[in-house]
Structures are given as C-alpha cells and as structure tokens.
Write a structure and sequence with these properties.
The chain is of the alpha/beta class. It is built from nine helices and ten strands. The chain folds into two domains: about 170 residues, P-loop containing nucleotide triphosphate hydrolases (Rossmann fold); about 80 residues, no CATH class. The strands form two sheets. The protein has a six-stranded mixed β-sheet with strand order 6-7-8-3-9-10, sandwiched between helices. It is globular. One of its GO terms (biological process) is L-amino acid transport.
Length: about 250
Amino acid sequence: MHQNSLIQLKNASVRYGGVHALEDVDVHINAGEVVVVMGPNGAGKSTVLKALYGIEPLTKGSVIYEGTQIQPKPHEMIKRGVVFVPQGRRVFPSLTVRENIEIGGVVAGKKGLELEKKIDEVVDLFPALKNKLKRSSGILSGGEQQMVALARGLMADPKILLLDEPSLGLAPKIVKEVFEKIAEINKTKGLAVVIVEHNIKSILAVAHRAYVLDKGRVAAEGDAKEIAGSDILERVFLGKEAKEEHTA
C-alpha cells in the first residue's frame, strides 16, 4: 500500500455484463496532488472515478481510503471528503447560481450561519460568478456552468475532488480558465484533484501525475511531465486508431 495515499484502487476490476471496463487496475491518489486519467474512448477512465466514488461496484479488488478498506457509497463518500463532479456540468437550470451552490453545502450537512459563511468563501474563489448569483443557471455559458459545478463541489470541504471531463464542450480559451482555476484550488486549498480528461496538452501542464489507460488496464503511470514527453500517448492513442483504420 502507498504510504501517504488518501485513496486507492487495488487490483480493481469492473464488468459491464461480460465486458471488462477495468481489469486489475491499481490507482493511488496522494494528498494535495493533481492526477489526470487519460486514454482513448472506452479505455475505462470514467469508470475509475465511479469506482472510487461508489457509483460502479467492483467485481474484484478493493477501494482503500486513508489506509482502510471500504465499500464506497456516494452519500458516505461526501462525508469522508470525496466529491464527484460528473461529466456535462449537471447544474439545475431552473435554480439560481446561488441555489445551485447552496445545494452542495446542504448535501454535506451544512446549515444556518455555517452554510452562509461557506457560500461566501466559495464564491470568493469564482469572481466571475459574484454578480450572477441571482441569475438562473440555465442561461449561463458553458464555462460559467462549469464554475458553478466546481463551486457546488467545494461546498462540502472536500479532501478529494473527482472531475469527469471538466473541459467537455468548452471553447479553448475557457478550457484554459477552467484548468487554471483547478490548479489554483489545488494550490490554495491543498486538496487532491483527480481529473478524467481528453484535453491532454492543457491538463498535463497543471497535473503532477498521470495514468494512461488502454482497454481497461493501466498502460502507463508516472510524472505528468515525463508522460507528456514520452511516446506512450502516441502509442496508445494512435496505435488504436491505426488498428481501427486497418480493420475498416
């Protein structure tokens, strides 16, 4: 077991019917680091986050949190300090920005003065939202909605933030802003961030470590800069594409 890991998957397998989404996967997340999980479509990236959070049960292996083996369940993971921000932002469009953010605190058991104080603290991290708190979330831009989803996640005071494709559908300039905000939250709050991302070049610039998945297995793991400078991404991504072209 990794000495200072907050959470890890050990020999983890997940099956969907007869298909292996993950097979004998080992992933560990240390306190205060940004870890990116990459790979082609269908490689099992999102399943890693869902297995850590308890959305997808393991068919084999274990989830270890702060040194103890657990059976993760989403409502319990929030109390443990693990928050999942799903793909597609998922804001409540009819609710205001403030109401959306508030839900994150209520789910974590905050109320009254503690809740109000936490909303103020979180909103301070997202200046772009300050003058939009009374607006319906449904009319915000994609980038603003992603900021709302991040703010809502931070209301629970997490130790670990699990982000599933936060840049999906966003313009390049907004992607840069979102990743800079994630890096800022990591530095100022000291919380660990695990990101499933297809926007490889941008995210490797802010990540500490990276896992590359291929067909449900870990193809490579290491320092983000070393992964970025190696040929593993080319082999995993382009190798797969070349095979598909050949069989087409």
